[in-house]
Amino acid sequence: MADVNDKATRRIRRAAVVGGLGLLVQFVAALHWTPMTFILSAAIGAPLVLVGGGLFLRAVWKNMREKGAV
To answer: How far apart are CA 33 and CA 37, in angstroms?
Structure first.
């Protein structure tokens, strides 16, 4: 049973790191807003946030399936 929780925790942490990196890129770009930083924010930051959200949803779904909730 502890193995399932460890996997779920690792998956959620991975999602948080990816999403956090995306938010960090967007925050740093917003500190000095130029056309180039906007492009970097849109091309790197936004996809990282979206991937992090997708990883989180996947982690929750897998955790629910492993515990028999779905």
So the answer is: 6
Structure tokens at 65: 């399936």
Interhelix angle 46-66/2-31, nearest 10 degrees: 170
Judge whether 9 and 66 are in contact, CB under 8 Å. Answer: no
Q: Is 58 helix (H, G, I), strand (E, B) or coil?
A: helix
Over the stretch 30-57, which tens digit does the pLDDT of each residue have?
Answer: 999 999 999 999 999 999 999 999 999 9
Closest listed residue to residue 50, CA positions, set 27, 21, 70, 10:
21
**Residue 44, token pair as written in the block:** 């790197």
In the block, residue with structure tokens 């955790």: 63
